[in-house]
Amino acid sequence: MAKKRPQTKAGKTGQAQVTSGEIPVVGAREPCPCGSGRRYKACHGRAAAHAVTELVQRPFEGLPGECDWVALRELVPAATVPLTLKDGLPEGVPSVTLATVLPMAWPALRRDDGSVLLALQNDSTSGDLARDLADTLQRALEVEPGTPVPARRVPAEGPRLQDLLDADAAFAPEVHTGFEFWIPQSADGAEPEVAASLERANAAAIPTVRLTGVDSAYWCETPDKNHLRWVMPYPEEKLLDALARLQAAGSTSLGPDTRLVGSFRAHGLVVPVWDLPTSMTAEDCEKPAAEFFERLTGALASDAPLTAEERRARGGLTNRQVTLS
Predict the structure, then answer these.
(1) Is 4 helix (H, G, I), strand (E, B) or coil?
(2) Which of 313, 308, 324 is nearest to 252 (CA)?
(3) How confident is the model at residue 325 (pLDDT cuts 50, 70, 90)?
(4) CA-CA distance, 189 to 285, in Å (whole number)?
(5) Of 116, 173, 274, 316, whose Cβ has the fewest other Cβ atoms within 10 Å?
(6) What ranges make up the beta strands (E) of the chain?
């Protein structure tokens, strides 16, 4: 085994001592900025790492449209949503828009006109996605126009999206067929790297449509079959009981050749998934989805113990549940 290095006393490092409140975040193996001579991860980074790795199960809880935040994070290829800041837009920033992804996987971009695009589907550096996104948003508001915002390790203390966004503003996603929203209409053309990234992203995008008659339900088209993926806000155990009651009663269908096949678990919410025939469009889903929602509302209101058949149905649903995050 390699010998442990003796820890150097602060007075011999040649670094000035700083207070805890001034210590910046650096790489885990870099010397701690406090001047202790130890690596950051073994000094002030220890508490910071513990704080940022504590997983927040529902990072979007309390935001308008929590279910749609989850859908755009995990299920929808191309979409945008205008965001309203609690304190209004800073001078020189005409708008802030949430986007599912940006070219070259940029966390955010401040365009030449000063507007900001914030990407939702980038990797999280901590256990709190809402804190990661808030940090990126704040930096995007401050960089020079025409500048992408790079990824970084997010400080343990800092605001969350819930602190920055107006809780009373509407959250209205617009689903796109491709990623042309990356390029402003006023632009003459995209840079070669952006154009190549756009071409790759468009080729991989699965056609997706948000239903209008119910909340947070998304139809998508795949080569073999279509699907409906519906993010629901109800407590998991309560929702699974309700779905089991309907499953046992043969009431989960959305029409001929449709089937409730299971669910995703994502950011603290459950996302039931239906297989649909390739001939069934998003428009065809509207009426049966609304009718199913009425049946689900009735099942959610029941507190009766599950019957043996309902318990078997629930077990089947649980066995077909996949955790996305």
Answers:
(1) coil
(2) 313
(3) confident
(4) 38
(5) 316
(6) 79-83, 96-99, 108-110, 116-119, 147-149, 174-175, 208-210, 217-221, 226-230, 259-266, 269-276, 321-323
Structure tokens at 215: 């909340």
Rounded CA separation 45/37 (Å): 13
> 54 burial class (0-12, 13-18, 19+ CB within 10 angstroms)?
exposed
Distance CA 8, CA 87 (A): 46
- 3-state secondary structure (DSSP) of residue 276: strand
CB–CB of 88/190 below 8 Å?
A: no
Q: Can you read off the two tokens belonging to residue 178?
A: 């491709």
Residue linked to tokens 């790079």 = 150
- Dihedrals φ, ψ of 129, to 5°? -60, -35
* Residues 175 and 95: beta-carbon distance below 8 Å: no
Phi, psi of 208 (to 5 degrees): -140, 140
User: What is the average pLDDT across 187-211?
Assistant: 85
- DSSP letter string, 32-78: PTTSSSSBGGGTHHHHHHHHHHS--S-TTTTSTTHHHHHHHHHT-SS
For residue 90, the one-letter residue type is P
* Helix, strand, coil content of the chain in percent (nearest 5): 35, 20, 50
Give residue 324's identity as a one-letter amino acid code: L
Which residues are CB-neighbours of 139 under 8 A, at least 6 positions away? 108, 149
pTM over 0.90: no
Q: Is 31 helix (H, G, I), strand (E, B) or coil?
A: strand
What are the tens digits of pLDDT across the range 264-317?
999 999 999 999 999 999 999 999 999 999 999 999 999 999 999 999 999 999
pLDDT digits (tens, 9 = 90+) for 32-64: 888 888 887 678 776 555 544 578 999 999 999
